[in-house]
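Researcher: We're teaching a course module on how sequence relates to structure. For the next exercise, students receive a sequence and then see the predicted structure as tokens, so they can try to spot secondary structure elements on their own. Here is the exercise chain.
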Amino acid sequence: MRLVSLRAAAAALAGLFLAASPSYAVDGVVLIDQTMVPLTITDPGSYRLSSNVAVTGSATAVSIQSNDVSLDLNGFTVSGDSMPFSDGIFVSSTASR
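Model: And here is the predicted structure for the students to work with:
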């Protein structure tokens, strides 16, 4: 009985890690969907929304904290519930050139 429980727990944990890993488009662009929000981008590169994304509470949907980042909304929207101190997209200027 305990062996079955451990296997079920391991399978569930593996599913969480797989869901959190990024997907890539054919052209190498990192695809962003609702399951990845809130997201902090710390590596240079190209990123693209693959669906509408929404953030709730005082959160930021996408925080960019790196130089040389391209974010393509791809016709989708970033929305929230109008809470104070929330951002759809926040770009930090802390990276040096």
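Model: If you want an answer key for the exercise: The CA atoms of residues 66 and 95 lie 6 Å apart. The longest strand covers residues 45-49.
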